[in-house]
Write a structure and sequence with these properties.
Number of strands: 0
Structural class: mainly alpha
Distance between the termini: 45 Å
Oligomer: single chain
Strand content: under 5%
Length: about 120
């Protein structure tokens, strides 16, 4: 009889140990995922920040250059604004579906790889 109680007690201890290990594993996995997400987000935000600053300074320089050439700074800035508006319309009209498809495919691949 004591053999069965010993086995039950060993089973309980093994089960408790398994549950604690599983919980710790999932905590570490969550920590890893959050850390990767955070570092990736910071990298992307810094990249976007520097690209945006570069675009602003280059656009301003081009606007001043065109203003000098046309002897009207307002026309230089207007021309740069029209250029960006045309680029915006082209991107909006020509690539919307491609961007949606690309985002869906990449997200699906990451999701399916993670949870398969």
């Amino acid at each position: 009889m004591s053999s069965i109680t010993d086995q039950i007690q060993e089973f309980q201890e093994a089960s408790k140990s398994y549950i604690e290990t599983t919980i710790e594993f999932h905590r570490l996995r969550l920590f890893k995922g959050l850390t990767l997400f955070l570092s990736s987000s910071v990298h992307k935000l810094l990249s976007i920040l520097f690209i945006t600053l570069s675009a602003i300074f280059l656009s301003t320089a081009v606007a001043f250059l065109l203003g000098e050439i046309w002897e009207s700074y307002a026309m230089g800035f207007f021309a740069v604004g029209i250029f960006y508006f045309i680029i915006f319309l082209l991107v909006l009209l020509l690539t919307r579906k491609k961007i949606e498809t690309n985002v869906i495919q990449r997200t699906s691949k990451k999701f399916l790889i993670k949870y398969s």
